Amino acid sequence: MQSLTRTSHLVAPTMTVLILLLLLIPISSEVEIDCNSLRMGQFICPDPALRQIDPKTQQLRGCTPDNKARVWCVAVEGIVCSETKNTSFTREMPCKWTNGYHFDTALLLSVFLGMFGADRFYLGYPAIGLLKFCTLGFMFLGQLVDVILIATQVVGPADGSAYIIPYYGPVITVVRSDNWTYRLPQDNW
User: Fold this and answer.
1) Where in this chain does the record put each TM2 domain (predicted)?
2) Phi, psi angle pair for 72, to nearest 5°
3) Beta strands of 84-170 (E only): which ranges?
4) Do the bridges between strand 68-75 and strand 79-81 make them parallel or antiparallel, or are there none, so unpaired?
């Protein structure tokens, strides 16, 4: 009987010490990692809480001629970025570098003054603009071709920049295939 009371006296203080130790150890569900290695679905980019779209160019702020911009992103709850020690981090995203040429201006010039080459002068092609001016838009056939080329965004500004088009506007993205493109066969092939 005596040994039983001795062990019960030792168990109670030991359990109390263990419980106190567990309470003092910080238990965190957050994991600190390099946020550039996150997979899709573990972050949202760009951060919707920040206004990262430039109202003048309708592209990401800080877009470079290399068509890349660094934007702030947010990781999901429970992930802490090692770079910033919080859930936000920066990531490089694709964008379209613009240099002041508006799509709607180029299209309107092509429709109404294309026979005089005003669209080509505006886009930075003075030689073609002068040729269109001298031949009355290649007898209006060149004007029609230019309207189609500008409307489909095949012809852009001469400096290689993109048109300024509203963010949810009629932007055409050309999808090209090369030797690394895999084409999935259709049922009717």
Assistant:
1) 102-148
2) -85, 135
3) 88-94, 98-102, 162-164
4) unpaired
Helix or strand run (H / E) with residue 138: helix 136-139
Tokens coding 37: 């290695």
Determine the 3-state secondary structure of 125 from DSSP. coil
d(CA 156, CA 138): 20
Global pTM reads 0.71
Q: Can you give the pLDDT at residue 47?
A: 85
123-156 per-position pLDDT tens digit: 999 999 999 999 999 999 999 999 999 999 999 9
Q: At how many degrees (to 10) do helices 141-151 and 126-134 cross?
A: 150
Task: Give every CB contact of residue 43 below 8 A, 6+ residues apart in sequence.
Answer: 35, 73, 74, 75, 76, 79, 89, 91
Residue 58 in this model has a pLDDT that exceeds 60:
yes
Q: What is the pLDDT of residues 88-112, one digit of tens each?
A: 999 999 999 999 999 999 999 999 9
